[in-house]
């Protein structure tokens, strides 16, 4: 019986300035195989399906259970996490490419630090007085926790930004992930002390009005965060803030 | 005198906790991490964090938490630091709550608590089944705030290579590798805190993340730091076997009522739901009526091994048992466990709300780690350690939901202590050893990049993982451990012929991995040889040839030091601090 195999086509690029090339790999099929395990196997035997010696593929990964947000890439055209991309659920050859909206480092590795900069810009934190013992936090009812917890599940994978037609250099749009964090911290009893600053940070160019409501973000979010509802809600808050600021000025 | 400069290596819970304390006290910090700190392995912790807040009217106290932890660790942990940790826990939970962690709540808006293994109290605060993620994010946000105020500089994408130590043996900085440009640099500091996490990669597949190689710990071990209790490795009873890793299935599944069972008839072919209650063997509940499915991890793991390998009752003859949640209603499961149920569904394909999960034990945690004093400093002056990379809080077996606590507590201690140490540090003579250390690292790098051998580092690593998993996990025999040590020596020899398929100087992951591999091999010998020498059974360390705990000979901390000789590390033993709770036999058949 012929051994069952899996075909991969991987977009390689040695450095940001180097030309991109496609390499094909053929690996033995195994039950439960995912894209990250295939990349690990290639590292152990970096030979293309044409028999050419190549280098192990450079890519980001860490937890391999879709909670650290590292291994986002385009797989068969869709932005998703490579660890939870099971080979049995994918059409072959499986085409693996880096995210396209972020500066390329090498192969499948890109620089997504823009998201962390955005989180700084919107002050995505609760401004506590200090870490010394000040007793319990404010009461939060389960109904509120159940709304906030999903927002707090964002793994910063940037799939929502990759999939968004408005996320590009022309608009400078912050993207859905950051907006969801604004919603989260504005809902917190202490965090909301910075609410106005956060909303103003989303009011200018590249802010929330760049959203074209394509709804791609919510489709690709691996954590099923209600991104479009959240954007609508924050959008209203930003508008109200603008009006307040206009009347107050 | 210039303001002290502190370097923190590692951006998981322990590292971030240290950073926050230093920044808050007016110090400035350089934070190094292989991955963006928000992607650190702490995100993988699921079930919760322990603190005796006694919000369920059970009469829980910090003393009971202390006793459960010491008893759970089979009395190998020094009691003074454990006691301090348990006493600090309620205030740590309050702080996390104030930082905005989305903990689950009671109807009255208070923190909810659930049960975990090794205790009879509801002592575990939780945020769904993604508590580690939520805690890490809370600390990450606070660090980002300090970063935006200029108190913290992040070096993300840099890997720690070694400590810079001056002629008097005092730490003066670190060397690190930029994983993108492959630049080697040294960084000066007055104190260094290592918070570099676990060592799962030494076992090949584990529940740990890719970066958990133990490379940093091993590097400073080879520079003279003691490594303590290395042989004490926790194998988690419930993991999902996978091609690339073993995915954790949190103890909280059992904390919320999950039951472990196998069909009483070997190879029972009936559909699961048609196997009647009486023909299901709930072996943990039968063997441990008081604690049931919530016995500590070492005990649950050995029970599963026994059912599968001695009684031949694994599902379909495979090394797997059921972890069953199907008797609990979907709404409750989603509210309390959704994160982990989603993981199972995504990676296995079945919905655990309808079909019992199939699980098996897998390497999860190291109780051992860098030796530190009660102030978190290693024996190299100026190098502190906190979190899983040090040995201090869990003895011979860690209780579930104590790891997040020990990370934060250890980081909170290490930060201020490092700052205090740095303030009193006399200036270095000359360059403090920087030039010499850079030269030593450059030579290692050049050797790797120009080596003309035949060995692939990833293949050597697979062999290491297989050897360690087979011989140094649940059940240990001296004969097999000796063979494992010989195998590691063989791998170290073959490592000299390692050939990198990639010699480029840009984002070369093979190169970084090859450097980690050498350190993994050296640390593997510490684990294996430490296990050979500990001729007893205690906590997670189980030898059928020595089935009893032997306090007379082994109520002692193992301390390994690097020799560079072919025989491997040197071992010595240190008395354990048992001043509060006298050691007593550890049994979970009744309340202890």
Distance N to C terminus of chain B: 54 Å
Hey, roughly how much beta strand do the residues of chain B contain? 15-25%
**Beta-strand content bin of chain A:** 5-15%
The tally of domains of chain A stands at 2
Radius of gyration of chain A: 21 Å
- Spans of at least 5 consecutive residues with low confidence of chain A: none
CATH architecture of the largest domain in chain A: Orthogonal Bundle
Mean pLDDT of chain B: 96
Please tally the helical runs of chain A, counting DSSP H or I stretches of 4 or more residues: 8
What is the C-level CATH assignment of the largest domain in chain A?
Mainly Alpha
Q: Which structural class do the helices and strands of chain B define?
A: alpha+beta
- How are the strands of the largest sheet of chain B arranged? 13-12-17-16-14-15
Share of helix of chain A, binned: 25-40%
Structural class of the helices, strands and pairings of chain A?
A: alpha+beta
Q: Say how many strands of chain B there are.
A: 21
Mean pLDDT of chain A: 96
Overall geometry of chain B: globular
Distance between the termini of chain A: 79 Å
Q: What is the chain-wise order of helices and strands of chain A?
A: EEHEEEEEHHHHHHH
Largest sheet of chain B: 6 strands, antiparallel
């Amino acid at each position: 019986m012929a051994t069952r195999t899996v075909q991969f086509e991987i977009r390689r690029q040695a450095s940001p300035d180097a030309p991109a090339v496609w390499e094909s790999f053929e690996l033995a099929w195994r039950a439960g195989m995912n894209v990250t395990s295939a990349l690990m196997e290639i590292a152990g035997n970096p030979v293309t399906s044409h028999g050419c010696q190549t280098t192990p593929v450079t890519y980001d990964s860490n937890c391999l259970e879709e909670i650290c947000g590292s291994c986002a890439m385009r797989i068969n055209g869709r932005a998703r996490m490579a660890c939870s991309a099971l080979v049995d659920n994918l059409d072959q050859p499986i085409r693996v490419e880096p995210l396209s909206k972020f500066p390329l480092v090498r192969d499948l590795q890109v620089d997504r630090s823009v998201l962390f900069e955005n989180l700084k810009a919107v002050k995505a934190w609760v401004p506590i007085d200090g870490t010394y013992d000040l007793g319990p936090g404010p009461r939060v009812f389960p109904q509120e926790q159940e709304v906030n917890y999903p927002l707090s599940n964002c793994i910063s994978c940037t799939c929502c930004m990759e999939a968004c037609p408005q996320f590009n250099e022309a608009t400078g749009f912050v993207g859905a992930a950051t907006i969801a964090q604004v919603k989260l911290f504005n809902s917190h009893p202490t965090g909301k002390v910075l609410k106005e600053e956060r909303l103003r940070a989303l009011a200018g160019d590249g802010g929330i009005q760049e959203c074209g409501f394509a709804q791609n973000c919510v489709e690709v979010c691996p954590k099923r965060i209600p991104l479009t509802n959240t954007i609508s809600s924050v959008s209203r808050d930003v508008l109200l803030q603008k009006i307040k600021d206009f009347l107050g000025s | 005198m210039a303001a002290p400069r502190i370097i923190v290596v590692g951006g998981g819970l322990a590292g971030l906790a240290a950073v926050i304390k230093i920044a808050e006290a007016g110090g400035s910090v350089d934070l190094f991490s292989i991955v963006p700190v928000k992607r650190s392995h702490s995100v993988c912790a699921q079930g919760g964090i322990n603190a005796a807040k006694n919000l369920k009217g059970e009469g829980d106290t910090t003393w009971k938490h202390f006793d459960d932890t010491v008893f759970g660790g089979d009395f190998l942990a020094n009691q003074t630091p454990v006691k301090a940790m348990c006493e600090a826990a309620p205030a740590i939970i309050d702080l996390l709550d104030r930082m905005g962690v989305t903990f689950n709540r009671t109807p009255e808006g208070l923190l909810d608590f659930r049960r975990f293994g090794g205790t009879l109290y509801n002592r575990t605060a939780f945020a769904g089944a993604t508590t580690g993620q939520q805690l890490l994010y809370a600390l990450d946000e606070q660090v980002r705030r300090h970063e935006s105020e200029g108190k913290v500089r992040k070096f993300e994408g840099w890997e720690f290579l070694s400590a810079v130590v001056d002629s008097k043996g005092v730490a003066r900085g670190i060397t690190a590798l930029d994983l993108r440009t492959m630049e080697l640099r040294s960084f000066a500091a007055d104190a260094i805190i290592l918070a570099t996490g676990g060592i799962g990669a030494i076992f090949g597949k584990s529940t740990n993340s890719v970066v958990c190689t133990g490379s940093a710990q091993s590097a400073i071990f080879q520079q003279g730091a003691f490594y303590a209790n290395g042989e004490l490795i926790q194998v988690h009873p419930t993991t999902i076997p996978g091609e690339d890793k073993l995915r954790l299935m949190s103890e909280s599944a059992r904390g919320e009522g999950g039951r472990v069972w196998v069909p009483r008839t070997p190879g029972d072919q009936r559909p699961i739901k048609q196997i009647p209650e009486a023909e299901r063997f709930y072996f943990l509940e039968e063997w441990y009526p008081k604690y049931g499915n919530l016995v500590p991890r070492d005990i649950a793991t050995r029970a599963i091994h026994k059912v599968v390998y001695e009684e031949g009752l694994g599902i379909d003859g495979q090394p797997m048992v059921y972890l069953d949640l199907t008797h609990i209603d979907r709404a409750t499961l989603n509210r309390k466990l959704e994160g982990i149920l989603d993981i199972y569904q995504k990676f296995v394909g079945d919905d655990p709300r309808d079909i019992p999960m199939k699980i098996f034990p897998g390497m999860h945690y190291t109780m051992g780690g860098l030796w530190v004093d009660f102030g978190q400093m290693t024996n190299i002056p100026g190098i502190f350690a906190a979190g899983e990379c040090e040995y201090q809080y869990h003895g011979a077996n860690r209780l579930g939901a104590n790891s997040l606590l020990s990370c934060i507590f250890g980081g909170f201690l290490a930060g201020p202590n490092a700052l205090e140490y740095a303030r009193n540090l006399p200036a270095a003579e000359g360059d403090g050893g920087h030039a010499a250390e850079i030269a030593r690292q450059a030579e290692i790098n050049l050797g790797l990049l120009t080596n003309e051998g035949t060995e692939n580092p990833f293949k050597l690593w697979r062999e290491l993982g297989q050897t360690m998993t087979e011989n140094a996990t649940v059940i240990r025999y001296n004969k097999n451990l000796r063979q494992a040590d010989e195998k590691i020596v063989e791998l170290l020899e073959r490592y000299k012929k390692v050939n990198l398929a990639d010699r480029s100087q840009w984002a070369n992951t093979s190169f970084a991995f090859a450097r980690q591999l050498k350190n993994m091999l050296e640390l593997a010998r510490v684990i294996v040889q430490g296990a050979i020498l500990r001729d007893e059974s205690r906590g997670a360390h189980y030898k059928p040839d020595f089935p009893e705990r032997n306090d007379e000979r082994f109520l002692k901390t193992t301390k390994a030091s690097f020799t560079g000789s072919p025989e491997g590390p040197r071992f010595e033993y240190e008395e354990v601090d048992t001043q509060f709770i006298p050691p007593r036999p550890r049994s979970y058949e009744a309340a202890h």
